[in-house]
Amino acid sequence: MSYRVGIVGATGAVGQELIELLHRRNFPMSELVLLASSRSAGKTITWQDKTWTVQEAKPEAFDSLDIAIFSAGGSTSTELCPEAAKRDCIAIDNSSAFRMDPKVPLVVPEINPDAARSHQGIIANPNCSTAVALMGLYPLHREFGLKRFFAATYQAVSGSGAAAMQELEDQLRAWGKGEAITYSEYPHQIAFNLIPHVDVFYEDGYTKEEHKMLNESRKILTMPGLKASTTCVRVPVLRAHSIAINAEFEKPVDLQRARQVVGSFEGAELVDTPAENKYPMPLDFSGKEKCGVGRMRIDTAFDNGLSLWVVGDQLWKGAALNAVQIAELLVADKLISPKATV
Ligand code: A2P
Questions:
Q1: Catalytic annotation on 241?
Q2: Distance from the CA of 93 to the center of ligand 1, in angstroms?
Q3: Less Cβ crowding at N or C end of the chain, within 10 Å?
Q4: Residue 48 forms part of a structural domain
Q5: Residues 324, 310: one domain?
Q6: Nearest 5 degrees, angle CA 294-CA 137-CA 328?
Q7: Based on the domain organization, do 201 and 118 belong to the same domain?
């Protein structure tokens, strides 16, 4: 059986990765339709020997599709995911528009695949930092029982889209040529800088990104009482987010066992030989399906605590890969059937 798949936001940073991953993972597709804004309608996109003409994302586009993966921002998802669902096209949404909607499952296939069963036409993909952090935290939670965590993120510019990647490259080039550095994607220069500001600020002083990490972790882990405090920072890295985590657990933590459970978890690769300078880094985990976990050590501030460092390609595990894995789950669990050809 094969499916007609749409990508909404196909010209964007995540959209491009979706084209790659759907093919690379041999997702059973009878057709792939690339959708974006009216600005891109008529443009062509080529991947290996295949070329597609981009179409404008309009509600009628979903009439003939079985699955649509959205990565075109919250307002496009708010408008078009329900249109897709209405047309019996399952929407897998990368934006934050529906993540906390109680009727919409928020799914990380390695953690809560069963949640996908209750979908009503829309399935949400988690925030990129949350997905990456949980690849380290979840196996530890299963073993020791997570109680609370603190985290600081080091988030790559590709998390803000293709234009932000271009801005970092342009700033580095301008610096190399001794020219003035300009910016428009962030409120400050990102080259040679760190910006402790990801998404908008809320009244409590946290940012929306920091709220997402707490609320989405609670939903995915089904732990409404989970406590967490995070600081999200944009760093001048092109691709792959890194997260420093200090976690407290219900049970005493045995370091060797912690390394074992992380090393055998399907979403993680243990890279933890500090004596040989081996730890996960963004350059090594760009374009990798697994997230790297290292720097594991007994935490000196918590009683049953563990410190760890998690790195993952947020365009993949934090976005495109997780979405494709959700689509694969729908197929494997027979939660989707191809529409009859009209
Ligand atoms: P377009 O290239 O036509 O603007 P990124 O995350 O890299 O910034 O990419 C955002 C993606 O979302 C792009 O593919 C962009 O298409 C798409 N997009 C933006 N606005 C809309 C819209 N109103 N309808 C459909 N796609 C949109």
A1: yes
A2: 14
A3: C
A4: yes
A5: no
A6: 105
A7: no
Within a domain: 341: no
pLDDT digits (tens, 9 = 90+) for 3-31: 999 999 999 999 999 999 999 999 999 99
Domain that holds residue 95: 3-126+320-332
pLDDT reported for residue 342: 53
Q: Are 129 and 313 in contact (CB under 8 A)?
A: no
Q: How many domains does the chain have?
A: 2
pTM, two decimals, is: 0.96
In a domain, 342, yes or no: no
Residues 66-100 pLDDT 10s: 999 999 999 999 999 999 999 999 999 999 999 99
134/89 same-domain check: no
Active-site residue, 23 included: no
pLDDT, residue 340, reads 82
What is the DSSP pairing of strand 90-93 with strand 122-124?
Answer: parallel
Q: Which residues line ligand 1 (CB under 6 A)?
A: 8-13, 15, 36-37, 39-40, 57, 72-73, 76, 161-163
Q: Is the pLDDT of residue 203 over 90?
A: yes
